[in-house]
Amino acid sequence: MKKKNIIFLIGFIMMLLICLWFYPKLPQQIPTHWNAQGKIDSYSAKSFVFMPLAIYLLGWGLIPFTAKIDPKKENYKRFYSVQTLTQTILCFFSVVILAMTLIASYHPKAINANFIMFPLLALLFIVIGNSMPKIKFNYTFGVKTPWTLANETVWYKTHRFSGKVWVICGFVVLAGMFLPSKWILSFLLGVILTSALLPFIYSYLSFQNATQKKGNKKL
Questions:
Q1: Which contiguous run of DSSP H or E holds residue 33?
Q2: What element of type H or E holds 193?
Q3: Which secondary structure element, helix H or strand E, spans residue 44, and what is its range?
Q4: Label partner for 66 (CA 20 to 30 A): which of 21, 43, 74, 168?
């Protein structure tokens, strides 16, 4: 077993032991959702304390699985560090969610979720954005549009552009933490749409530009 997988396995076992330790002591209903004000607005059965474990397993296993089934799987070796970083972020998120759930189960008013999730979301945008230019051409990981998948040059240009967009979005998210609560949902939706639409549009324009240049050369 690779050293990385041993570390992930140890992390999973530690989370499982923590869940098993706290489970008998938890109230029958535990917080599972926070609203735009960062306050608890939904409770579920205490068995949901194990949900972060599922997120952890997903973060640990999904990317290696896609690397095995992707037709361009040989390219995954060329951005291995990005895969490991993504796995680490997803697993770290699950640890934070578990910690929030356990603390809020005993002290419901102790946590304002916005002051935890906003920095984490900002970190996610910034780290992934910084890693995007390193992602090599493949069919399952990265910015996949009809135009990036049709042209490797468009793929690399789009990922360089997308990386900048995502880093900027990360800092915007961090600033949005201080917005009035009534604007938060619309704000986050706007940031997410921007981070998705701008790369999509750019990939189309880049492909059209590449096609036009190719046509001019033939003339």
A1: strand 29-34
A2: helix 181-218
A3: strand 40-45
A4: 168
Is the CB of residue 49 less than 8 Å from the CB of residue 30? yes
**Residue owning tokens 């900027």:** 168
| pTM (two decimals) | 0.82
Spell out the domain ranges in the chain: 1-111, 113-219
3-state helix, strand, coil in the chain (%, to 5): 75, 5, 20
Query: Residue 197 burial (CB < 10 Å; 0-12/13-18/19+)?
Result: exposed
pLDDT tens-digit series, residues 102-126: 999 999 888 888 889 899 999 999 9
**Under 8 Å CB-to-CB from 179, ≥6 apart: which residues?**
187
Q: Specify burial of residue 89 (Cβ count, 10 A radius: 0-12, 13-18, 19+).
A: middle
